[in-house]
Sequence to fold (310 residues):
Amino acid sequence: MKFSSASLLLAALALAACDTKTATTGEAGTSAATVEKADTAAIDPAAAQTSGTQATATDEANATPAPDPSTISATKAGDAAGILARPQVPILCYHQIRDWTARDSKGAKDYIVPIAAFKAQIKMLADSGYHTISPDQLYAYMTTGAKLPSKPIMLTFDDTDLDQFTIARPTLAQYNYKAMYFVMTVSLGRPHYMTKAMVKQLSDEGNVIGSHTWDHHNVKKYQGKDWETQIDKPTKTLEEITGKKIVYFAYPFGLWNPQAFPELKKRGFVAAFSLAEKRDQNDPLFTIRRIIASGYWSPKTLRNNIVQSF
Ligand SMILES: [Zn+2]
Fold:
C-alpha cells in the first residue's frame, strides 16, 4: 500500500481536524478539555509540585530517576480510583512546526505551529518554571504517587514530521527539555519526515519514542490483521531503531475505545495517550489526556489552557 507523503499528511490533518475539532478552538481558548474540569480534583498543575525547588531544571530532572514501569505491580497500575484522584500533569501535543502557507486550511493551523510561535511557547514554559518529565516519571507518579519536579509538564510530538527534529529538538535543548515522540513508521525516511537515524538520535539523547501506528489508522476500526500491521510490526521497527522496549502508545486522532486496552496491554504497552477528551474511568492509564498546543495560541493563551485543562 503506497501513499505520497503529501496525501497522507493531508488525510491525517483533515481527519484530525475533523475528529478532534472539539479539542482546541484557537485563540478564544474555550477548550473542550475544560469539560473534564469539574471532576478533576486539582486544576492547578503546580498542585502536583514537590517541595524544595532550589535545584535547576536539569538537577531536578536528574534527581528523580523514574522506576522501570515493569517493576510497578499490576495492582497499583490497575488502581483507577487512585490514579484519577491525583492531579493530572499537563501534557502538550505538537505536530508540525513550520510557518503557515496559503495552502494551510483554517483547521490545519491548529496542528501547524509557526516557528516563532513555537519558540515563544517553549520559552514561556521555561520562564514560567515548567520542568519536562519523561513518560516513565509520569507513569510512576500516576501509579504510585512518585514525586515529580516542580511544575511538571510533558511535551509530545506526533506523526514523525521532520521539523520536530530540525526545529523542536534544538529549541528544547536550549532549556534542557526532553520530549516524547510518537512515531508513525510509514513516514520514516520520506520527504518532510524524520529518518530512522534521527529517531535513534532523539532516543539516544534522552527523549522517549512511542508508537503511533504504521499509517495512522483509527484504532476503533481495527479488525483481523490490523493489530499486526498497525501495532505489532511498527512497534518492532521502533524497538529495532532505538534498541529499547516501546511501552507507550498514542492513538491516531486521539480516538480510542475500551476494546483497544486489552489489545495494547497484551502487546506490552503500559500506557496510552489520547487528546482532550475525558479519561476512561476504569482505565485512565490508557486514556492519558493531552491538549494540542494550537498554532493560533500566543504563549499567554497556551499558559491559560494548560492551567484550565489539567
Ligand atoms: Zn497522529
